[in-house]
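Every protein is a chain of amino acids, and every chain bends into a shape of its own. The protein below has been through that process, and both of its lines are reproduced in full.
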Amino acid sequence: MRITEAARRLGMSPRMLRYREALGLLPPVREQGAHRRFGPEELSAVAQGVELEKRFDVSPAELAFAVRVLSDPAVAAAVRDLGVRIGRIQVPRRALDFEKEKALRLLRTSTPGQTSKRA
C-alpha cells in the first residue's frame, strides 16, 4: 500500500510517517531505487516504534538515537564514556584493581615488625 493509506491505518499523517522513515525507524526499502510500499511488516514496525515512544515517553528522534547507539559501536562507546563520566554507568572493577586493593588491605592490617604467614 502507499504511504497515504499506511498513515491512515496507523493514525498519523503521511508527513509523520516520512519523518519516521528519515530517522531510520522503518525497515529498509527492499529494492534499490523503488518507491516504498507498506506491507504488514512495515506497519508492524512503525506501530511497535510508536508503542515504545508512548511507553517510555520519548520522541521519535530519541528512539532513533537509541537504535543508533545499539547498532553503531562508535556511538555506543561515546555514549558509554559519557555515562561513566557523569556517574550514570559504573565501570566494572578489573581483576588487577581487585588484587591491588587486596594487597593494600593486607599491608594496612599487618603490624610493624611482623611478617605475614603464607599458606
Notes: The first helix runs from residue 3 to 10. The chain has two domains: 1-58, 72-112.
